[in-house]
Structure prediction request, 394 residues.
Amino acid sequence: MAQLKKPTIKNPELVDAMDELKKKRNPDAEKKMLELLKEASFIAPISLNTSLDQVEPDAEGKRQMQASLLAVANSNGEKFFPAFTEWLEYLKWKNDPDAETMIITFDQYCELLLRQGVEIKGIVINPAEANITIQREKMAELKGVPLPVEQTAKKRSITALFGTEKITNNDVIVGAARLKAENSDAARAALFDAIRKARFVAPVQMEVPQNVKPGDTVNAKAEFILIHRGEEQYLPLFTSLPELQKWVSLPDCKAVPMPFSNYVAMLNDPKTKASGIVLDPFSIGLSFNKQQALAIQPQIALRPIDSAPDGMETELSQLLQGMEDVQKAYVNGVSVNGTEGFVVVVELNNTADVPKNADAIAQAAKKYGSCVIAPVKSPLGAKAIEGKTPFYEA
Prediction:
């Protein structure tokens, strides 16, 4: 079969701007990228309706052929046209040097997509790596034209509850970018630590009783909304409310804050349909299966011991003497994700003081093994001190 000449187009300034946007995620970086986007040309994969050899040339020796742009679908089944900034980016997506392609400008994509009756949702730039999606709504905004009336989606309602509009997770975003760039154990550990400490924005469907007075107990049955990735469903972890709002096909719902421990509890539920978790599915897109996700949150089990390692109780007692909030302290053994360690249980004047003292205690105890700090009134603490006498009393 006769082959079409492969395109030599490149977009170095646009690629640099996309990288900058991924790193900074601020309005200035986005504005610069969008300005370059409007002037860009891309490589588009096509499907020829006939072979080039089967088309007879016209009087001028030209062959007129019909071709269809290829589209790809995301995890929600929404279709996008892939757009590649250079030939190498296409090969990263599909290693097919003989594939048919054509050059399409951003304006031409707009002409195709900003019509009535178009089901394609936009373009996705370099889907194998950068994976930057430009929705039809943004394309219309850049062109300064409205969407066709029948294509304007019904505005959905997302009600932000309990301060979700204030949630940001810079540590998680930075950790995910580092893991993508390095794919190292250190980067993975840093991201997992950030996830454990984070509160995410979770989409739920629930009915909240009307006319609730301050102090009233509210029983509202909530159903968490899962996201499809291929044939499986995942729990989506959104780092902010704007990330949740990128979910175009999301039904009317409430947005609530959710610590990672709640996701672990849902994954541990035998009735769950979730196969794992996915972090910011419309930007970061990092997913972890159920086993990987459960490993992020420490699984702690008591490991009774007869005595603590030599010197541990003495060293900790000296430290605790300088902590006026600590009244008593106990030590026992635990297993954290299968690794043997210790739990130091403390009795405090005020349980709110646990975070203030826990880091110092854990830092002093780590030479003896991994260490967990728990208050006496916690489930783990209450269980760990059964039959134990304190090694420290104020």
